[in-house]
Structures are given as C-alpha cells and as structure tokens.
Amino acid sequence: MSEKILVDTLVGESIQKKIISGDKYKIIKLTGDASTRRYYRVVFEEKGYVVCLDMPRNPEDGEPDFLRIQKVLKNGDVRVPQILDYDIERGYYLEEDLGDQTFLRQLSLCKTRDEERSLYIEAVDLLISLHKTDLKKYPQEIFNKRSFDEEKLMQEIHFTFQQFVEGLMGYQRDKYNYNLMIKDFSSLAKRICRGPWVFTHRDYHSRNLMFKDNELIVIDFQDARRGLPQYDLSSLLEDCYYQITSENHDFLIERYWQNVGIEHYKTKEEFLSAYNLVAIQRIFKAIGSFAYIYRLRGDIRYLRHIGRAFERLKDIMFLSNEYPQLRQELSSLYYAY
Predict the structure, then answer these.
(1) Mean pLDDT of the chain
(2) Can you give the pTM of this predicted structure?
C-alpha cells in the first residue's frame, strides 16, 4: 500500500467518525523536517488539515512525547497545533493546518525595525508562557525526566567536533588542540548544569514558530526538557537564520528578564553571564547540526548559516571573555579553513 493510499484510508476513517467533514479532497505530500516523520496536506473545498505519519507504537508504551507535551501546553494556554484525531498504533495524527508562514517568513515582510520588534515581542511573550509551565505539576511527564545535564551538553559538543571540525573542515583530531578545547567546553557545561530549571522547548527559533491569522503557534516541542531559561531565549535571539538589531536584542532580553529571569537570578549581571555561556554552547551545537545536514543530504543551503553562526559565536565569546583560549583555538581552525 502506498503512503498516499494509507493517508486516504485514515482520513476517511476520521470523516466516518465525524471528526472532520467533506467529500472531495486532495492529498499533497509536504517537505519533511529533520526527523523520520512524514507530512501530508489534506485539502477540502473550504478547509485543510495536515496528516503526520510517525512510527507506529504499541498502546502499552503510551502516547508519544509530542502528544503528551501538546496536551500539557494546551492546558497551560500555550498556543500549539490542535490535534483532531490520532491512532498511535498506525502512527496517524490529524492536525490543524498551520499553513506555510513561519515566523522567519513573517519577519521578511517587516517594513521597519519597529515592526520587527513587535513581532519579536510576540515570540518572547509566547516563550514566557512556555517557561511559566509549572514543572512540579507534572512529575511523571517525559520533559521532567530529561534535562540539559552535562552529559547531554557535552554530547552536542562532541557532535560538532565530529561533524564540523573533523567532518566538514577535515581536521584530524591529533592535528589540533582537541583536548584543550574539550576541557574548556566541559568547564562551561558544568556551569550551565547548575540550573535554575524551567520547561525548555530545546529548539525555539524562527522556523519552529508558525504565523497564522495574526497569531504565533509553537511547533516541534517533542524534545522538551528541563533546562536553563536562557537556552530557549538564546535560540531565538541568536537565531542563525535571522539577525536582529542590537537595540531590539537588548530590549527583548530586558523584557524577558523582567518577566522570568528576575524570578530565578539575584542580579541581571548573573543572568546575562549565564546567557552568554548558554549561547556559546547553543550556537556551537547549531553549527554541528548544519554541517551534519549538509554532509548527510548534500543540502548546500545549510552551509550559509555556518558563517553567520560562527561570527556570532566569536562575538559572544569576546563579550564573555571567560574562555579566551577556546575562542582563539576555534578561530584559528575556522579562518585557516
């Protein structure tokens, strides 16, 4: 059975259950994300839906992470995609159609920096809602059982050395100061792991926010975990896909500080210091992801993001100035390539 026939069958069952209505519809395959999930748009005369096909699950294993987390966020009044029907045994999820307008595409329509700021205020306020999720209310949920601990952070660091430094740039491990840099990154990771913890999306950036009917909707939250509040904030404000002005950057950090940061840190200086450390790890990890996607798929579009990411990484490391030798070693490899 081809996948389109499977989608047709599953949508037909949703119609029979009167979850959706309509007779004639088209099924259009959509470009997937970095996961193994596949997506189809189901277009009726007056309305459309999206079908997600994921790995089938045994009901005894419980609901998948994204479904459980979706329910938690929805109950917390965080705008997430509506899931209208699902069958976990067949990996079928019928969702509302959010369209194709990402936050990134919406930013491209801004006529002024004030418009840009207004859009980012919406994104920061949505993030504030996410971070207000009360972890104590959900002790058994998956996002409370995993965190950005040292092992996870260093796993991402090692990944970038493998995929970017050695894989893409072609350096042999015994030909550069790998151990010195790992020692500094390990020190950085230990400091990040001290907390405080909030509900963390893990990949909160301009391509994981959708813009529909003048409303921002957060997607791709299935890997949520406990983490520093600065992790998601730096993912948004140090986004490798889009650069905002320094004025808007500082304004948005202040907005977040006043609403969330001040609840977890004694001083803003302490908050900003942790922000810089998290941003260094996050951006370095993103560079590894871009290199990996290019090497795996040959998708040249991701190479252009590495340059901006590295320049921003270098700027933040200068600003922080806590690991000058690490910055110098990384720069010597990058600019010699």
Answers:
(1) 95
(2) 0.92
